[in-house]
Amino acid sequence: MTGAGAKAAEYRIEDLAHASGATVRTIRAYQDRGLLPTPERRGRANVYRETHLARLRQIADLLDRGYTLASIKELLEAWDAGRGLGGVLGLVAEVHGPWTDEEAGRISRRELDARFGGRRDDEAIAEAVELGVLERVPGRDDEFLVPSPQELTVAVELYGAGVPLSAISGHLRELRGQVEHIASRFLEFTTEHVFARYLGHRPPTDSDAAEAASLVRRLRPLAQQTVDAELARAMRTFATRHLHHHLGEERSAIAENSTRPVLLPARTTQAVQNLVGAEGLADFVAAATERELQARTLDHLTASHAKENKIDEHP
């Protein structure tokens, strides 16, 4: 770098690469794509200034936020046209921010083993890391980062209730796929009906991006609230149906065990069949039995009433 005092800083391409963290090859590629302003030519060398360093840092920041080079070029062109990037970067920061109030925690390997029955299970740990339930801490083999302590607590409770770790992992994989589908649909829905008017043109204006960021803050909890409400409704419906199904099977088993078949004489069965036909045989026997039971009940009530009257007349 050359220049001192009030003179603006100047960089050769190697100095610019060192100051920005980019490689010389990357800087030249950005120039070819039109992402960097044209440097000043002095003799056989190109001279870069602070504006080039600032632009390289902007590009690096946008790449870290997930932008492609093509979209970065559009954003930078908007910036150069005086439309500003403040609102856009605010929108990006809002989307990339946390979508839950839950804070990550840490857990030691000893504590983790203790919460899962005290048995060391390296295979289960590896699967938990693959699923993102646990994250390894660099340089610490005996400690893990827990992105969602609530999710780990659910796994502990299920394991304590008798669910194998392999089944818990399989269930989480299945559940994650379904939840990701829900999240995708919610984003498509809100984009179509809410954000399309702000993001329909590329790049969005600074004010549109700022208003979209405000909407993200307002709508962010709605997805979880909707899923919570619908999950509660579905669990109530299916749990009730599930319970009734099993209780119904139990009642059927009890009724089946408490009922014994009654054999009628062959001549009686044939006589009834001749009277009402084979199709009406079972109904006729059931009706006759019910009628006999009712008659005997009436006889019993009448006899009991007569006996009580007799006692009242002759104390």
Topology record:
Blueprint lengths: L9 E2 L1 H8 L3 H10 L6 E3 L2 E5 H15 L4 H12 L5 H11 L8 E4 H7 L6 H10 L3 E3 L2 E7 L2 H12 L4 H35 L6 H53 L7 H11 L4 H33 L2
Antiparallel strand pairs: 1-3, 2-3, 4-6, 5-6
Helix pairs in contact: 5-10, 7-9, 9-10
Structure characterization notes:
With 315 residues, this protein is mainly α. Among the domains are: 73 residues, Orthogonal Bundle (Multidrug-efflux Transporter Regulator, Chain: A, Domain 2); 48 residues. The protein is built from twelve helices and six strands. The chain has a three-stranded antiparallel β-sheet. Helix 7 runs parallel beside helix 9 and helix 9 packs antiparallel against helix 10. The N terminus is likely disordered.
Which key features would you list for this structure?
single chain; 315 residues; mainly alpha; Multidrug-efflux Transporter Regulator, Chain: A, Domain 2; 3-stranded antiparallel β-sheet; 12 helices; 8% strand; disordered N terminus
Find the structural class using helix and strand composition.
mainly alpha
Number of helices: 12
Q: Based on the structure given, which CATH architecture of the domain at 10-82 is correct?
A: Orthogonal Bundle
- Major beta sheet, specifics? 3 strands, antiparallel
Rounded mean pLDDT score? 79
Biggest sheet, spatial arrangement of strands = 1-3-2
Strand content: 5-15%
Could you state the order of secondary-structure elements as H and E?
EHHEEHHHEHHEEHHHHH
Unreliable segments (pLDDT under 50, ≥5 consecutive)?
1-6
CATH topology of the domain at 10-82: Multidrug-efflux Transporter Regulator, Chain: A, Domain 2
Number of DSSP strand runs: 6
CATH class of the domain at 10-82: Mainly Alpha
